[in-house]
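Example: Arrestin-like N-terminal domain-containing protein.
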Amino acid sequence: MDDSELPSYGEVLAAPQAHGQLEHSYALEINSHKWLSLFVKSRASSPKSQPMFLQGDVIVGRVELHLEKAETVKGIMIAIEAGTTVVGQEEFKFLDEKQTLWAPGLDGVKNTPKLKGRYTWPFRLILPSMIPVMGAKGKEKKTYNLPPYFSERAGPVYIDYRLVVTVRRGPLRVNQTLTTIFGYQPVTIPEAPSQLRQLAYKQGTPILVPGEDPDGWKVLPVVHVKGTLFEVKRVEVKCTLAIALPLTYAVGSPMPLILTLKSPDTQALDVLSAPNAIRLHLIRSMTTGSDATDEGMTRRTDNYFLEGVGQAYFWTSSEQDGNKRVLQGELEISRNLKPSFVFPRFTIQYHLELLPFKAPGFVSAIMEGDVALLTEKVTIATMQTPGITPRSRAPPGYERPQQVDYNKSVGFLENGNQRFYHHTGHG
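Written out as structure tokens, the predicted fold is:
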């Protein structure tokens, strides 16, 4: 995969900026005496939270040293470190930016390795937006966007960012370090939606359907929903899903959808057009290992993990006739989702997956756990397009149907991904 295929990152500030006035502090103590302290400012909402930075930010702060007696010190350094760790394996470090705060002679006084008293060293560290990383298996270096921090309970992989202060003691003494983790989030912004949809958002009017706004939708090929109704007759319904363009959605925003069902059997239409019968999920895939950036590789259950992270909900549209049912819907993108990214040894991507319909009296011809009716790749971004405020279209007072556990629906065990997975459908 070349760099042009990586998720689009929005334009950031022209020059790196220091953001946030909230200050965090960390210290090493001996007998309640804080002899080494780190102070750093960030965007976090509380000083008790871990520091938080966005793409384009500058990390600013200071290091304080308070020695009550003279001690030999070979140097004081601060560094930004980051690495990916797959459970059970050693960390793959991809970032190590160091800055020397003090060394003998650096302050203009030669041969002064011993320090005593109070010292303060300010620092300013620039977070790079992109970094060159050596590919797995000795492949050449490629440039990648810096990935977001990632840590989930019982997760198979972690991305850690750290600020590390090191006090170098010399060859016969152990160096001492003061470390704190911090959060990092890239800035990714979707392209603007169609002009007609932008106008609808600004005016608070209903968004137009695909026939009225063809630039605003991707209409997927028809899929055939087959099964048995009330154990007496076989039915077939043509299903067409339309997804709002562009196929990139910011966290905290709704994804507009339209589902059209057609059949000469009106009874089947009525059963399958019930909102609870439709199971359209947003699926997160996490790929680890040496082939994480290669979408063409066959995935295994020990390095490819799938999880349902959202479900669409639908309501009946006014556009109906005897042989057609049209449902409008949307899928809320959780604010807690990590953005899509491609990075050596760890990649996160998303796709929509339409599972077989499930309704009282209807038995699908596709059994539980089988492949989906269709899939479509989408991208999750961290920020909304400037000037665009997507609005939910759900009718006032609409009660969302009960959510279906995707992981149980497709036969996943609770403790892991237990099936081989192959993309089907379109995308």
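The two ends are 17 Å apart (CA to CA).
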